[in-house]
Amino acid sequence: MSLLTRLLERNLRNSGAGARRLYSNHAEEESSATKHEFADEEFRVLNLRSTSQATQQKRKVFKKEPVQPPRHQKMATDQDWSAVWPGPRTFQPSVVPLPLRQGYTEKGAPPPSKFANAELMKIPNFLHLTPPAIRQQCEALKKFCTPWPKGLETLENCEKRFPIEIKSTDYCHALPTIRNPEARRVTLNIKLSDLKFDAHAKDKFLRLVGDRYNPNTGILTIVADRCPLRKQNYDYAMYLLTACYHESFVTESWESSKSEADMEYYSFERNKSKQSAEAIINWGQPVEEAKKLNADHGFAQSVEQLINEGENVYNLGKYKEEVLKLLNISK
Amino acid sequence: MLRSLCSRLEPQSLICAVTRGMSAYSPHYIEAIFSKKKQLNLKETDEYIKLSHLPIKAAKNDDSESIFYNELVNKMVNYITKGGNKKLARELLTKSFECMKRVQIERMNLNPESKDTIIADPEQLLIKAIENSRPLLQLTAIKRGGVKYQVPIPVTEKRSYFLAMKWLLEAAREKERKVHLPEKLAWEVLDAAYNQGRVVKRKNDLHRQCESNRAYAHYRWS
Amino acid sequence: MEVALRIGVNLLKINRVCVHSASRITDSYAKQIQLNRDFSTEVTVNAAPLAVKKHKVSKAMKAYLERARENDEFMKTQKLEYQIGKRHLANMMGEDAETFTQEDIDNAIAYLFPSGIFDKRARPLMKSPEEVFPARKAAEFDETGRPFHSMFYTGRPNFFKLLYDIVEEMNKIHDLEERMLRRGTRADANQKIDFTGFQWMPKEQLESMLVEQINDLEYTNFTNAMDRLVSLPFSYKCQNFIKKFSKPLLDQTKQLEIPKPQFDADGRQFVTTYECLRKTARGDVTVRMPGTGKITINGHDITYFEELQSREQVLFPLIFAGLLGKVDVEANVEGGGTSGQAGAIRWGIAMSLRSFVDQEMVESMRLAGLLQRDYRRRERKKFGQEGARRKYTWKKR
Amino acid sequence: MLGRHSFKLPRLTNMCVAYSTAAAEASVEQLYNRPKLTSTDYRTAENNTKQHSAVHEGKFYTLSPEQKKQLFSGGGLPRQYEQQIKTFTEACLMVRPTSLELLNYIRNTDFTRPVVRYVLYGENGVGKTLTMAHVLHYGLQNNFVLVHVPWVPNWMKRPKETVNATTQEGFIDLPFDAAAWLVHFKTQNANLLTQLQLKTSKDYVWTKREATPAGSTLLELVEHGIARIKFASETIAALLSELKQHANDDKCKIMVAIDGFNAFFHPETRILGDNKQRITPDRVTLTQPFLDITNYNWKNGVCVLTVDKIGMTEGYMDSYLPRYLLGKEGFEHLDPFVPLHVDNYSDKEFASCIQYYLDRNWIQKTPEGFDEQLKYLSNKNPYTLMRLTRSL
């Protein structure tokens, strides 16, 4: 209902016969009219000491340098953009003809515009890599391309011929410097099966590289980031690989004089288990070295497995089977 | 006109103005109905359809549908709990249940012909004990004409359960140092389940007192 | 009168006028504007000068009109700039400017200016000016400084007008009821408004409809008044009025989308629920169907939980859905204590089980509070207090 | 829960009666809800352990009270199991697959070969000790001399008294424990020893006045040890070496059953030495004789040992597997041994156990699906099941 009255009211006011109003009397209107007349008159200034106008005007007025309107206003909408923005460059509000805005504001307020907006300058932009520009550059580069080397068609072939894999990362980042410290990091991957070892060397090599070797995938990973440049780090990683490989073939003099406690792994041959197992097999037989029965190879293996790999249900089950066989216990 | 508007709105708004307090849920969330039995009962009425639009609070971490769950037993555990150590409280009540059950099974073994009459389910025993020790009336002091009168007033259902459990627990905690709480609680519960023992006596005493003070009952209203 | 004028001037300063001309109504905003139209007053610049010519206009009014015109011009240039920018962008991206939509613009901007700022609103954007410069309340008084609305000085005229309207409706219904009673007819019970499955318009929506900010108490007053209106026997007579402020509630279970089970290597169905949270515990739960009832928690069986209560919690949804022994459960959970971890797993299992039970059971599980995430957390200790709520023992001296 | 009616002041007592009867009715209803039991499903009348075979797997057999008294009066059953026996008024053991396997091995043992060591291992509460009890019963019924140590960690963790050994320098003696063990040995083997009439092979001189001459019976030796507690440990050493000797001479068969054997290879005990430092078990005089008798260098015997993680002290309870619990030394001492895994109940065993509990009135509440719930709550672990059913 009230809406209707309001609409009516508005219509009355807007129509030519605006003199008649709802909810108002003439007296009030008149008084307000007189007030308005007073309000409209110029305020006269009482100038007692008339100073000369010239001295007043002498004061120098600061004049702003006229600023050119942004360049993009003159741009045609079908221009060649890659000619305007040929290479990587910091964001330039007067050149980019887009009404961009960026920044967080409280609810209701518009985000700051592109002019004098430092945030827009901080983030990287790909204005030089628009799809047409990429297409253009690819077209231009095509004539310099050489054919893909023969024999490297498949991934297996690549891996076979180049077993060492080098990884490094280039960063495109919002930083004051273009050199990201992470970019110098070089990661070297190689499958252990591509290196040739004997048993001792392999053991030593694995000890040297420690947890850089992943036994699940069989891949050795060397990460180098101690030098300031990527090239140096690459050289260092390659050096590490070479040095470790050759060092692993060196046998030290003290290695022959290790005692049982110093051994890296458990060996059935050297231990008490063998003695007791053989004593049980040869129980009641006269002691003759030649006739002595030897413990079963399967048993030896199961004991070694149990201790070297650690206990689990499978290893223990296997050990039990072998023991039953050794002691000749029937189910 | 505005004033009349406000006066029209006010009385109800006072009732309905829900203060959310510190709850993590909005006020229109309702408690979970986690028991299947209760849900089936609800299904028969048309309340169930209305519930489909309401958001439900998550079930508490001591609610469950398992065989060990009983509302009253849960409450009892909560009353036993001291300093938030609910695990211990539950263990204590379980031990007490075990104790009751052993006693009852031994009784069964002593005279096998009364096997069917002896209740050995500790949960039933506890419920029975609580039912037996629930008071109907209690006394409150009401001051009339400068004199305090002990006036009998009815106990709400909820409070009667509370009092019963509290009394059982108080009786169980009042013991020598050597006796453990579970044992003593088991004895008290067994006694109360057979309608004897200190807790039932306490209830009867209270009732007797109420009976003797029935003359003051009118002070409740005047 | 002078005081009133001054208030009017102040209000003018606060409310920058935004003119809604028909051409500006975009698709996305059409709905909201439709709503706003009832309450926001329309003042067009063209309408004013007619009056201005005849009457002397106050300075405040002059400034206001000036500002309105400026704003209009500003919006016009903004719109032009946006149209040109859009063509430029289409050119840059090598696409056709005519078919370039707002979505394309957003994609192009995200490509050209990749920003990792967490808050998506703070990333670079190029939106139409209607979206960037939000609509505001129009002028509420005429050029003489007289408010249009009789309740202007309540501060929230539209809201109080609404309350007033509600009461008016109520009065009408009361009168009707009386007349009907005299005639001996009673309200039709079949036509009675059933408000189940409906709720009153939420506060934010009401605010945007009224173009006014209201506080919680006022909103409660509104809902209470509406509740009263609905409860009247003849309320169906003002069905349209009620409908305007009610919103249908969605079925709670239907709101949650139930994931489709995937198939694993053994050909069994499985569903994984990630982000199972309770207290500070966090985990993920996989339920496989059909199974043998094997439960794996962090590589252990259910003995991972020593307490009975925690074990009960883990089994709760399975018992409830009657799937104990029919599905396999694998859970990984970390953080928190035992009860929190059990709660997280319970929620995860319940959420995953939805895919393997019928709709009725899902609703039943929801009613059991199994599908609701438990948001309760430990309350912090407050300074000057012994704990979260408890105060220090107070001693007078 | 019962509804509360409107109340009136008088007639209070009547109302209370009404409540209690209503509650009783509810409970009776639940009682009749029980499944029907047929005793052959979970019980077997075969009490001779020699006859136990796969047919009896998962069923309970009864241990006669006399035999129970003879075997376990000095310990050997878990305390809570003893309590169960008291409540159930009978001692029942389940025939477990592991014990069947072990009994089978023992029956087929070639007694001319060196002694075989069987090591029972498994999680907490799976029934290692009760499996051993079953085997002990077999030993008793088949005339083995039983060398049974109920729980070794008792000696290493909470000895009754510690004394510096007189004969061996730097060793600790546990006279009371040793004497208690001798009493246990006597109750288990008195009958058999009087039958066998085993004699000592050499003189044992304890002090200037006391001596056990060669040719006296072993029972005399044992009784001397019990009477003179001071020499109990040495008596044990003498007794065990004598027994070993006799077994080697084919005069008797010996069953060695040691529960918590890994306690002999603890990294540390809770016994404090002279300088208030925890000593290692090899410095306890009781250790050596029992290690000797579990060695492979004799025949006519069976060694049944259990390793248990609760036998260890704190910080050494990570795994229940034998190599971990025995450590390097213990493994070398026993190797080659036959590891026997005691597992949780199978479905069949679990069902039989539930039926047995129902039969003994141990489970009172039987709503639908209670067994299924118990199965998953307990993970079919016998001990957990026993604990869970306490409050049912």
Reported CATH architecture of the largest domain in chain A: 2-Layer Sandwich
Rg of chain B, nearest Å: 23 Å
How many beta-strand runs of chain A?
4
The percentage helix of chain B is 40-55%
Q: What is the SS-derived class of chain A?
A: mainly alpha
- Strand content range of chain B: 5-15%
Main β-sheet description of chain B? 2 strands, antiparallel
Protein name (chain A): (Mediterranean fruit fly) hypothetical protein
Region (Disordered) (chain A): 54-79
Organism (chain A): Ceratitis capitata (Mediterranean fruit fly)
Keywords (chain A): Ribonucleoprotein, Ribosomal protein
Task: Summarize this structure briefly.
Chain A is mostly helical and 331 residues long. Chain A contains twelve helices and four strands, in the order αααααααββαββαααα.
Question: What does this molecule look like?
Answer:
Chain A is mostly helical and 331 residues long. Chain A has three domains: 81-142, no CATH class; 155-255, Double Stranded RNA Binding Domain; 258-327, no CATH class. Chain A contains twelve helices and four strands; from the N terminus they run H-H-H-H-H-H-H-E-E-H-E-E-H-H-H-H. Chain A has helices at 2-14, 26-40, 53-58, 81-84, 118-122, 131-141, 155-161, 199-209, 230-247, 272-281, 297-308, 313-327, and strands spanning 165-168, 186-191, 213-214, 219-224. Chain A has a four-stranded antiparallel beta sheet. Chain A is elongated and about 145 Å long. Chain B is mainly alpha-helical. Chain B has a domain at 24-67. Chain B contains nine helices and two strands; from the N terminus they run ααααααββααα. Mean pLDDT of chain B is 82; it is low at 1-19. The longest helix of chain C is centred in the N-terminal third of the chain and has 34 residues, at 59-92. The two termini of chain C are 59 Å apart. Chain C has helices spanning 2-14, 27-36, 47-54, 59-92, 102-112, 129-132, 157-183, 203-210, 216-231, 239-245, 252-255, 308-321, 338-353, 359-367, and strands spanning 198-200, 246-248, 262-263, 269-278, 281-289, 295-297, 328-334. Helices cover 46% and strands 9% of the residues of chain C. In chain C, helix 7 packs parallel to helix 9 and helix 12 runs parallel beside helix 13. In chain C, the strands form two sheets. A five-stranded mixed beta sheet of chain C has the order 3-4-5-7-6. In chain C, strands 1-2 form a two-stranded antiparallel ribbon. Chain C is built from 14 helices and seven strands. Chain D is 43% helix and 11% strand. Chain D is built from 15 helices and eleven strands. In chain D, strand 5 (163-164) and strand 6 (172-173) form a beta hairpin. At the A-C interface, helix 1, helix 2 and helix 6 of A face helix 3, helix 4 and helix 5 of C. Chain C: One of its GO terms (biological process) is translation. Chain C: Its main location: mitochondrion. Chain C: Keywords: Mitochondrion, Ribonucleoprotein, Ribosomal protein, Transit peptide.
